[in-house]
Write a structure and sequence with these properties.
Mean pLDDT: 90
CATH architecture: Orthogonal Bundle
Structural class: mainly alpha
Shape: rod-shaped
Distance between the termini: 19 Å
Strand content: 5-15%
CATH class: Mainly Alpha
Number of strands: 2
Number of helices: 2
Oligomer: single chain
Radius of gyration: 25 Å
CATH topology: Helix Hairpins
Number of domains: 1
Strand order of the largest sheet: 1-2
Largest sheet: 2 strands, antiparallel
Helix content: over 70%
Low-confidence stretches: none
Order of helices and strands: HEEH
Length: about 120
């Protein structure tokens, strides 16, 4: 069992780090969800391009500019690749944050249990 925490400043530092990790994990998870939604939208657009026979337009800011189907497919493939790389990067970052958060959570739980046991021993 963990040694009771003797230094309240160290314990508070660990709690602060845990809370910070939780916020970071939440932000990364949200970013990853957004990227995954964009990937899904791009996949749907790519499917539509496969059957496109008329004019095709691409958005540039507030403008729609006519483009060829081939150019639109190429641009969509490049964007999709970029977003998939970003999704992978966010996934790895999320895994690291989750692992560190779990380590810290386990440490804090042991420290709390040890402190409670020490307080119970002193009282009894």
């Amino acid at each position: 069992m963990a040694e009771p925490v003797r230094d309240p400043k160290k314990l508070q530092s660990q709690v602060d780090e845990f809370q910070n990790l939780q916020r970071q994990l939440q932000m990364v998870s949200m970013q990853r969800q957004q990227v995954q939604m964009q990937i899904e939208e791009m996949n749907m657009a790519t499917e539509e391009l496969k059957t496109a026979s008329g004019k095709v337009f691409r958005a540039i800011g507030n403008l729609l500019i006519e483009t060829s189907v081939a150019a639109a497919k190429k641009e969509m493939a490049e964007k999709l690749e970029t977003f998939e790389v970003r999704n992978g990067s966010l996934g790895k970052q999320e895994e690291k944050l989750r692992a560190r958060s779990e380590e810290l959570r386990a440490y804090l739980e042991k420290a709390l249990a040890a402190s409670q046991n020490a307080a119970a021993d002193e009282a009894g």
